[in-house]
Specification:
Blueprint: H1 3-24, E1 29-30, H2 31-39, H3 50-62, E2 66-70, E3 79-83, H4 85-96, H5 107-113, H6 119-149, H7 155-190
Antiparallel strand pairs: 1-3, 2-3
Length: 191
């Protein structure tokens, strides 16, 4: 890995610190529960694997930002993590800093960009699969928005609501693009 790649990896690892601290700022959780939250609520804008969660939790514990407690029961091992005041201060410091980088990475767009190798039929298939995925995600986001709208007296829910509304607008735009792209391909094929 080159130096630039290493620093990008380091930056992403550091972001995982704050993802986990952010999750723990609301409630104590196990690594499994954090992964579940990443795969559901946060999946629209952030991801993480067990391979990044547990090493990050170990590092955060060494730094004194989280504590862990064995909450095993009925022979099932269960380690629950909680944020410390130092961890909360670290999270707040990071939240106050400007965003370093927002990025958009879609394999669909990458395949379209190089699609001259497979032709318009391949492009249409990718667009249609992307469109179906977006429709499904939009259903979920609208459900989240409806649920959150009932709890907007709580500041935490207001922040969640803002991110969900961003997702809704984004997926609506993606669907609009899909429609336009399919129409454009039809036009090109008609020539």
């Amino acid at each position: 890995m080159d130096l630039e790649g290493a620093s990008k990896g380091m930056a992403n690892t550091k972001k995982m610190d704050y993802v986990l601290l952010g999750l723990l700022s609301h409630e104590s959780m196990t690594g499994y529960e954090m992964k579940k939250r990443l795969d559901t609520t946060l999946r629209f804008f952030w991801g993480g694997s067990y391979g990044s969660i547990y090493p990050t939790l170990n590092q955060l514990e060494k730094e004194g930002k989280v504590t862990k407690e064995d909450t095993s029961s009925n022979g099932r091992e269960k380690i629950s993590y909680s944020i410390t005041e130092y961890g909360r201060e670290s999270l707040r410091d990071w939240l106050r800093k400007p965003v370093e980088k927002d990025e958009l990475r879609y394999e669909t767009l990458l395949k379209l960009f190089f699609g001259n190798e497979t032709g318009m039929e391949g492009a249409k298939e990718h667009i249609e699969r992307f469109e179906e995925k977006c429709k499904g995600e939009l259903v979920v986001l609208n459900m989240f928005a409806e649920n959150l709208a009932q709890y907007l007296e709580d500041d935490t829910h207001k922040h969640y609501y803002l991110t969900v509304k961003f997702g809704i607008k984004t997926y609506e735009s993606y669907l609009e693009w899909c429609k336009e792209a399919k129409e454009q391909i039809k036009e090109w094929e008609g020539k």
